[in-house]
Write a structure and sequence with these properties.
This protein has four helices and 21 strands. It has 391 residues and is of the alpha+beta class. The protein has four domains: 101 residues, conserved putative lor/sdh protein from methanococcus maripaludis s2 fold; 89 residues, Efflux pump adaptor protein, beta barrel domain (Elongation Factor Tu (Ef-tu), domain 3), CATH 2.40.30; 62 residues, RNA polymerase II/Efflux pump adaptor protein, barrel-sandwich hybrid domain (OB fold (Dihydrolipoamide Acetyltransferase, E2P), Beta Barrel), CATH 2.40.50; 74 residues, Helix Hairpins (Orthogonal Bundle), CATH 1.10.287. The chain is elongated, with a radius of gyration of 44 Å.
Length: 391
Amino acid sequence: MSQARRGSAGSIIVQSVTILVAGAVLIIALLALAGAFHRKIGDSHGPPPPRRPASDQAIVVARLVKLPAIESAVGTIRAVRETAVAAKILARVTDVQVQAGQRVAAGDVLVRLDDRDLKARVQQAVAAHEAAQAARRQAEVEFRRVKDLFEKNQAAAIEFERAQTALDSATAEVARAAANASEAETNLAYSVIASPIDGVVIDKSVEIGDTAQPGRTLLTLYDPTRMQLVAAVRESLTERLKVGQTIGVHIGAISLTCAGTISEIVPESQSASRSFLVKVIGPCPPGIHPGMFGRLLIPLDEREIIVLPKAAVRRIGQLDVVDVVVAGDAKTGAVGGGDELRRQVVQLGRDLNGDEVEVLSGLKAGQRVALPVPATPNATVREPVPSDRRA
């Protein structure tokens, strides 16, 4: 029985050791997956930033400059002049001569309507007018005859009055018939819908066979030579703006920044956004179309920023880095002697005048930065140093 007990105890010990070993392996695996055994960039307790002797490289200096601060207000490009073309009569559409995007000149035919009934009405009105004119001529002859007899006391006064009334009635009938004929001709002219302006068709909502109704928009045109940016500007900024002021405009779709003139500030705040609509007009370069996104660049007070030539910045993976010159003599104008370079991670801002870039963090004004040299096959890429480990 003692042997059975010893065997049972040994089995329990083996199982316990197995469980402990498996647990240790699992913990080690989890730590490895979590990166516990990998050196991390930017660890404040790690080794100091790598330094290397500086070669004969040209250097530049991070400069502190003052620039006007700018706040942007988003807006939409719209046409200054946009026209909705609608029918004035009820008729069937027989021809549509334009498509969306097509340029037209003032007077060009856009749509034709069925004019058969209208032509018949014109003929009837013209015939009625001619008949009224003939009746008036007859009334004039009769009036003159009765008038002569009345003046010779050969006709009664009642006959003269009847002749006068008949002439007046015939004259009125001529005027009425002339008005009817003019109306019929005008309605006939409405069957041909022409462009009221030189412009571009931006919307076509009619097809052949449709029934055009008075007031229903068939086409929409705009003048491409006169465009405006309509932006919503928050209340606190409107006091900086006034009609006639020159202001910057940026159109991102075509990478265009230009100057415009404030033409109108709508004197009513939008309750939902607490902003005012500001309209800016200016020269319209090619590529500007209604509906495009734009920004109004509102100048604020000046601010100081650090700038550096773009050529001094390199991109390594997801990081922007520069080689900062440490030690040595800054008066030489070039890296040399006992100077060393320390690779520094920087955060960049906006581009300036095409050659320089704003540095948001990682450098101080006056620091010297070495321009990079072309890489060689034996060059060693050193590890970038994050901005939180600046010297």
